């Protein structure tokens, strides 16, 4: 059973711990750089990316996490977590830094204006058994991706799920539904790589 961390600075940490456990991983919260050691993978939860960015800097996690991602640590980010995995944010709040890992440009709160929050059926490449119930909460979308990025899903003409190597990200929150197929996709990629 792979041990997968959930970055526990802010956001819906508990929901990810439960979803990972349901997907047959040993899930542990991560707050300190030392806790990255020995992880087979890491989840970055949804929440508020500006807060996660600030707390990561405060806890001395920004550089160790960047290094771990560069070294090939499998990571899955949802919503704010997707933002944290973007190499570039369109109009970042001042001082907002990301960990990077996916060659993409992300627009924060992109779906937010018309609709603060909604659910939609999203067909995700590599996820068997029909569309995933996507929960979008002030969700970002991906404006553009580099050549090495695989687009796994689009919704309303916008990219909402991507993968680059071992790094996976979705605009929506599968951890808020009873459907654990996105977590299973991530856990099986972690298993295959280890
Ligand atoms: N709007 C949030 C941000 O910019 C993301 C919202 C979420 O994670 N549900 O970080």
UniProtKB/TrEMBL annotation:
Catalytic activity: L-glutamine + H2O = L-glutamate + NH4(+); aldehydo-D-ribose 5-phosphate + D-glyceraldehyde 3-phosphate + L-glutamine = pyridoxal 5'-phosphate + L-glutamate + phosphate + 3 H2O + H(+)
Binding site for L-glutamine: 47-49, 108, 137-138
UniProt-listed Enzyme Commission number(s): 4.3.3.6, 3.5.1.2
One term under GO cellular component: glutaminase complex
One of the Pfam families matching this protein, by short name: SNO
Origin superkingdom: Bacteria
InterPro entries: Class_I_gatase-like, PdxT/SNO, PdxT/SNO_CS
Active site: 79 (nucleophile), 173 (charge relay system), 175 (charge relay system)
Full protein name: Pyridoxal 5'-phosphate synthase subunit PdxT
Provenance organism: Actinacidiphila guanduensis
Upper taxonomic lineage: Bacteria, Bacillati, Actinomycetota, Actinomycetes, Kitasatosporales
Gene that produces this protein: pdxT
